[in-house]
Amino acid sequence: MEPDVSERKPKLLITGGLGFVGSQLVRQLVAQDQYEVHPVERYVTGRYANLGRTVETHFVDLRDANSVRTVLKRVQPDVVVHMAAISPVSYSYEHPQEVIENNLMGTVNLAESCRELIPSFKHFVYAGTTEEYGATPERPAKETSRCIPNSPYSISKYAGSKYLEYMHLAYDFPATIIRCTNTYGRTNDTHFFIEKIVTQMIANPKGEVMMGDDEAIREFMYIDDHVGAYLSVLSQREKSIGEIFNFSTGKPLTLNEVIKLAARLTHFEGELAKHSIPKRPLDITDHSLNSDKARETLGWSANVPLETGLKKTIAFWRQKLGRPAG
């Protein structure tokens, strides 16, 4: 006999649960034991769930509306955290159709299926991105700033945000949009800025580091603070539904300042090859965000200083690359 809904733990379905942020969030949610957690992933040959086998992973391509409906009918989640996306901006310039189809239509299929199939659905948390603000001159960007997305990736994510806003207005769909600043602390991927820089410095401490423009302004948030942003939204549903929240450190720096700090912490003595990586079309020079709303409404703040997060990241990659500190 099925347990009464009021007696069971709420079910949370998370897309992108094997990804960088998603896998960390799943571990936190499982440890807290407040939800029955159901990760959803698109099957990729050779990639398997690595979550300690404590949760069942559902494999589905979000572009396939029928497959999405099948999984939602089976799981009947109370809450969905939608993090799955093709996210490298550089990749989106060469594969715009693939990125827009995955990111936008995947969001539409998932949200519409929740609305149609789950009468008591409670919360849809969407992983937006700071890239949605794009070329806006309003910096640090607030949630009310004009969005001028300037890449196929940012367009796909902004379109997803606007679709969810429409659903909230039309059907009172319980959506929350999260826009987090650049996050670091990856353990498998060196494609992104922090990991790309520190691994080069660790691997060849007297060599050359390939880099682009070092005067661009960015904020870098450690993975623990990013996960904390999701937990703060999930734990304060009534304050979050219908809202957009920025999450950032509030401490923008030029990339040159970040690189100098990384060089000091890695004891790098080589050459910084500036402008050795081509610029993206319409690249943004200032990514700074204002996260006052998250702090005032949710009580969230970034707690890990950049130097502390960099030390953790460097220590991990030293061990992984077999390059202990001298």
Give me the secondary-structure topology.
Blueprint: E1 11-15, H1 20-32, E2 36-41, E3 58-59, H2 65-75, E4 79-82, H3 89-94, H4 96-117, E5 123-127, H5 152-171, E6 175-180, E7 182-184, H6 193-203, E8 208-210, E9 217-218, E10 220-222, H7 223-234, H8 237-240, E11 244-247, E12 253-254, H9 255-266, E13 271-273, H10 292-298, H11 306-321
Parallel strand pairs: 1-2, 1-4, 2-3, 4-5, 5-6, 6-11, 7-10, 8-13
Antiparallel strand pairs: 9-12
Helix pairs in contact: 1-7, 2-4, 4-5, 6-9, 6-11, 9-11
Task: Fill in the keyword field for this structure.
single chain; 326 residues; alpha/beta; Rossmann fold; UDP-galactose 4-epimerase, domain 1; 2 domains; two-stranded parallel ribbon; 15% strand; globular
Provide a descriptive summary of the structure in words.
With 326 residues, this protein is an alpha/beta fold. The protein has two domains: 11-183 and 222-247, Rossmann fold, CATH 3.40.50.720; 185-219 and 251-287 and 304-321, UDP-galactose 4-epimerase, domain 1, CATH 3.90.25.10. The chain contains eleven helices and 13 strands. A seven-stranded parallel beta sheet has the order 3-2-1-4-5-6-11, with helices on both faces. It has a two-stranded parallel sheet with strand order 7-10. A two-stranded parallel sheet has the order 8-13. Strand 5 (123-127), helix 5 (152-171) and strand 6 form a beta-alpha-beta unit. Helix 2 (65-75) packs parallel to helix 4 (96-117), helix 6 (193-203) packs across helix 11 and helix 9 packs across helix 11. The longest helix is centred in the first third of the chain and has 22 residues, at 96-117. The radius of gyration is 20 Å and the shape is globular. 42% of the residues are buried.
